[in-house]
């Protein structure tokens, strides 16, 4: 069975459309998202509705949580005063723009999903099972990943997002997959990225797909909506995303 995993879309509809088109071209049987549908990008309503209309199942991200429940912050790990300023403007825009119906759709997202494919048990979440905004990164290997295995010994495949960096590895017979970010890169490569996973009884093979899309359309809409210029430059690959 061929599956697609994508995440951290961040209200970037043009990127999401091209990713879905590529997944469909590859004839995937099922698509899941790891959360953060909104935030930073100019298309929060359109993105939530596109996910719903295309029946893409997924989980609540920390930004989705902050917006849907109108929290004072998105739970993001901002390091500088400038990042805080950009984040506040983005959160304010997203809360103001999102319709009540789409806010309710975000509220309805589960914090995790478990399912089974070809005898393999999957566990899908955004940051970690305990915290929406925990960063599970390879530099935490092996201790943090050992803890996941010990806490969830029945799980074969852990799928999560939040870091915006794609990676995949196996450890103690388990699989750990982060599909990266569709809508807000943290490198100067502006392309969207997602993961194709071929799941069979004896194997799981992961292929990351880098997808070009009309970046300038998203950047133009960011500027048109009065969002910070830095967000447009991140989309265009001119600066590294925070």
Automatic annotation (TrEMBL):
Gene3D superfamilies hit by this protein: 3.60.21.10
GO cellular component: cytoplasm
EC numbers for this chain: 3.1.4.-
Calcineurin-like phosphoesterase domain boundaries: 1-201
Pfam families: Metallophos_2
Family annotation (InterPro entries): Ap4A_hydrolase, Calcineurin-like_PHP_lpxH, Metallo-depent_PP-like, Pesterase_MJ0912, Phosphodiesterase_MJ0936/Vps29
Top-level lineage group: Bacteria
GO molecular function: metal ion binding; phosphatase activity
Cross-referenced NCBIfam families: yfcE (TIGR00040)
Protein name: Phosphoesterase
Species per Swiss-Prot/TrEMBL record: Carboxydothermus pertinax
């Amino acid at each position: 069975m061929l599956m697609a995993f994508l995440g951290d879309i961040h209200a970037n509809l043009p990127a999401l459309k091209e990713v879905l088109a590529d997944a469909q071209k590859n004839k995937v049987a099922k698509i899941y998202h790891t959360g953060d549908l909104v935030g930073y990008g100019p298309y929060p309503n359109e993105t939530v509705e596109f996910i719903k209309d295309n029946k893409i199942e997924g989980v609540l991200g920390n930004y989705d949580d902050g917006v849907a429940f109108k929290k004072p912050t998105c739970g993001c790990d901002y390091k500088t005063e400038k990042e805080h300023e950009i984040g506040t403007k983005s959160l304010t825009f997203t809360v103001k723009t999102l319709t009540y119906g789409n806010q309710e759709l975000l509220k309805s997202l589960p914090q995790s999903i478990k399912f089974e494919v070809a005898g393999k048990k999957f566990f899908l979440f955004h940051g970690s099972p305990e915290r929406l905004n925990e960063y599970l990164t390879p530099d935490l290997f092996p201790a943090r990943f050992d803890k996941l295995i010990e806490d969830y010994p029945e799980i074969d495949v852990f799928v999560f997002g939040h870091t915006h960096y794609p990676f995949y590895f196996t450890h103690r017979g388990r699989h750990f997959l982060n599909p990266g970010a569709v809508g807000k890169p943290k490198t100067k490569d502006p392309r969207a990225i997602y993961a194709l996973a071929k799941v069979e009884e004896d194997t799981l093979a992961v292929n990351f797909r880098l997808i070009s899309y009309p970046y300038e359309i998203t950047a133009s809409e960011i500027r048109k909506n009065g969002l910070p210029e830095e967000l447009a430059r991140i989309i265009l690959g001119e600066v590294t995303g925070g």
